[in-house]
Amino acid sequence: MYTFDPERLAKLDSLRAEGINPYPTGRTPNLSAAQAQALGELHESAEALAALGSDFRFAGRMLFKNEMGKAGFARMLDRTGRLQVYVKRDNVGEAAFAVWKRLDLGDLVEVEGGLMRTRTGELSVQATGIRLVGKCIKSLPDKWHGMEEMELRRRQRYLDLFVNDESRATFVARSRIVRYIRDFFEGRDFLEVETPMMHAIPGGATARPFVTHHNALDMEMYLRVAPELHLKRLIVGGLERVFEINRCFRNEGLDATHNPEFTTLEFYQAYATWEELADLTEELIHGLVTKLRGAEVITYQGRELSFVRPFRRAGYDELVAEASGLPIEEVRDVAKLRAFIGEGAPATLGACWERIFDEHVEAKLVNPTFVTRFPVEISPLARRNDAEPDLADRFELFAAGREIANAFNELADPVDQAERFAAQVRSKEAGNEEAMHFDADFIEALAYGMPPTAGEGIGIDRLVMLLTDAGSIRDVILFPTLRNRG
Questions:
Q1: Are the beta carbons of 103 and 132 closer than 8 angstroms?
Q2: Where are the beta strands (DSSP E) in 160-296?
Q3: Is there a domain that residue 147 lies in?
Q4: Mean pLDDT for the chain?
Q5: pTM reported for the whole predicted model
Q6: Mutual orientation of helices 460-468 and 165-186 as an angle, nearest 10°?
Q7: 8-49, pLDDT tens digit by residue?
Q8: Pair 167, 304 in one domain
């Protein structure tokens, strides 16, 4: 059973006893905090503000209150920012002033009146009427600090948003980032589409899926780990340029850069190559950084990142050679790679490269870097390079020591894809829970012929982290996945 604050609950009851509805029907404000500030900039003098009249209606949450006998000040927050309100008994009347005296921090209040400046020059609404429109019966926290409070902020995001300006700014920025991405791709003749979030067969990425059950069809289904295979079906269907901003679900661990439910952008372009997608990605990321941060060089978590174009491009083999100290001509020598790795070294070339990259390279890629020349062994959906068949036509974009994007020339050969699916099935049977299933319907789609295509996925959450200087993915997701409280 939920327990309310008894002192505030008593106020709620007393207001109702006096015929005051603490949760009345709303009336649309005709003034926001931002609009008030804009008017203040245009009309600096008291006379000019007074000439605007007193028919403004402003509503927001009261976060500060200062009572001074027959008058008082409050600072209120709406969706656009903060605005001060001046309340005087002679202006609002006895009844309204009596309500004002009983208002608490957190209450939602509607104020009518005109604009004025205080003696210190602060723009304020001079109230001629005041109305309680939403009683808060929980005491607000004095402040947030430390890790325990960070956890509470994520759990009670509704409270975090109106207490912390920086948190609200982060999610406003997130919305603008997504809008920029949509406009960017629509301006380049891509079609936004929607694909299923429940799959009969999980695919499109090597990941452990969430499992659910469809009662009407009496069948096991999986929450989407990636939209890739459905988007490529659309390429087969002739749409040629598609993108989706989608929710994905992977039944994996949680850390600063991973959340089981996350958002990605995936886009596919027929007749394009990974090189063209790299150019497109560089243009997109550079545009986002300069628009949102106002510069090509930014600071992220205390480190300086340069997004000056062109971004660095380096081969996987080149980076592994640098990290291991092996000459580039010996970087395919599995025995020497295993000797460098030491105890527990994997047996294959691709797995050795991946281990060395993960442990010795990734964290050092601070400035944006396109990593190319991936081994096919760890690229089950990517097309083989014509000149070096053990490598894939693929890149990943890294920045601030983490992966931001993954792209490759898509595998269009249905026979090769079927063989790779079969290899994934063998891996799953050997105990790899993240290996893919065999998707026969996707093979059938490829059998009809898919044009040469390049595709890419970009992690929206990690991109937002980068652009808002957030240290944890949980701080850029409104309602992150958290353990139940005991």
A1: yes
A2: 191-192, 198-199, 211-214, 219-223, 241-249, 261-270
A3: no
A4: 94
A5: 0.92
A6: 130
A7: 999 999 999 999 999 999 999 999 999 999 999 999 899 999
A8: yes
